[in-house]
Amino acid sequence: MNPNRKVAIVTGAGSGIGRRTALAFLDEGYSVVLAGRRRKPLESTAADSGSAVSRARVVPTDVADPDAVRGLFARTQESFGRVDVLFNNAGIFGPSGPVEDILYEEWKAVMDINVTGTFLCAREAFRIMKDQHPRGGRIINNGSLSAHAPRPHSAAYTASKHAITGLTKSLSLAGREYDIACGQIDIGNAATDLIKAILQDGAGATQADGSKAAEPTLDLDHVAKAVIHMASLPLAANIQFMTIMATNMPFIGRG
Prior knowledge:
- The chain is 41% helix and 17% strand.
- The chain has a seven-stranded parallel β-sheet, sandwiched between helices.
- The longest helix has 26 residues.
- The chain is α/β, with parallel strands linked by helices.
- Helix 5 links the parallel strand 5 and strand 6.
- The N and C termini lie far apart (50 Å).
């Protein structure tokens, strides 16, 4: 364990934004704990880091489970001694359809993972960061353009991402006393396999007028670099909110 090496936890590290960002942290010399529900995708992420694999730890975690989250942070402390960065990335889209057709179980699943999971991880990060030496750390929450403007038929997801904005602000305020900075990155049309399948290979995304249209996407490397930039600042500086998106995608007015 190198006491001068920074330590990051990335949730949802088995695919998409989490995977690419975890690899970027490893490229930057961080020790990285890869968290997610399924072991095999996490192990694949670690294996793709090449020679940096010795600085990666795979910890299967359901972020909606308080005991699992406590175990994640305990394992991180055991392995690396501290937590410098938490990238709260794990999340699900949930149901897409009219409000009146959303099932309670579907709504609850989105809130459990997107909101409660983010809170549980932030809570454990606070407990460690406020007492470690050197004190403090950084929490970066993955919001969404849906934290600002909804897509049609996305009530659960949009509500969860608006909640993340409120949580980010509360964490920022609470963290001042302990040198804990908290910011939020709002991402539009990151080119994950799922998003590409919907926006480019499939029928396209539902627009405000009810039509469907293909939309441009944003390379995941640009997202990962943005997260690394937020993490690289000294704790005396904070990017409170960053929006990164495909330039020509609908956003302002969703049109």
